[in-house]
Protein: Phosphoribosylformylglycinamidine cyclo-ligase
Amino acid sequence: MTQALDQVDYDTLDAAKRRFIEAAKRTLGFASSYGKVPASGLGGSANAFSFNLAPFLAAGNQELSLTLVPEGLGTADDTRPDDLSEEELRRFWWNIGIKIISCLTNDAASSGMQTVLLGLYLPSSTPETIFTPAFLDGFLDGVVEACKRVGCVYISGETPQLKTKIISGRLDIAGSVFGVMPPGVAPIDGSRLGAGNSIVLVESSGPHENGFTPLRKLAESLPGGYRTKLPSGREFWEAMNAASHLYTPLVQAVLRAGIRPTAMENITGHGWQKLMRSAKPLRYVVENMLPVPEIFSFVEEHLEGGPEMMLSVFNYGAGFAIYTESEQDAQQIVSLAREHGLLAVVAGRVEASPSREVVVAPLGVTLKGESFGIARGV
Structure:
């Protein structure tokens, strides 16, 4: 007795891959100051990028400082009601396209890196239910828009069908980016961070890519679910899905202005505990806060734990932190952020301390380093 051959759905996968390649072609000119890839070079197992070394040689660079950042979106793409219209789905997936580029490039930006190339990995078990017109139109347009804002090329990707590994109807969204420090600039590695530094906080648009496990759980308990309306009238899923801010343009503007931050942090998982990521025994005193997005006030009203829990889990309105040696530099960064359409504030200062801690004075909360097991520079 014989049985039918069970194989992957290449018709659906190949059609999706062609759409991804077409999207990649739209990004080829976005990193022109760093190099180029010919349109004819896309679609291969390994696509080539010709890196322009001339600016680095002119700046006297004897070596290049590079990074390779792998990251995954997590479950942000699962947080939506089942009854979204086609228009809402396209908008949802557009924001998800922004989010995956955000979580990759914002991490690279925390060391001062300019993302040049990125690749995406989107495995699923049922590609015929995943790669719909709404997904392909929305997600790929979001990716292209994010690449344009950041200044990078989407050069490669993979969309495998993994029948025994991925839940039916779901996909994983992950990728990696290749970044480089601009000519003549050393990486911002936190080694110069110290007491007396100023802290600049830059606004977030909402949860960005983190905290979706408790947000999903909360949505399940709300009478209106994901469509519960916030006081402004905005639905819960829309506030959760808000496109993340992309901080690379601001960071590069800061470096072009001649400012050399002592450290930078992308405030993601672990919330404001990330402010004390350095292994150095320092106290981070926050006296001025940015406006708290509505979604966080709503969540705080419905979950136990109060401000300390919110600060330990969510970015709570502050998506990126920049540390400077002088308050003058800090004030200039606030001005540069405004020019990039971002609200920022000189939030406080760094002090000497026997141990790591973050003191959020307006909320009366102190986050202790003992509860935060990640440290940079150990």
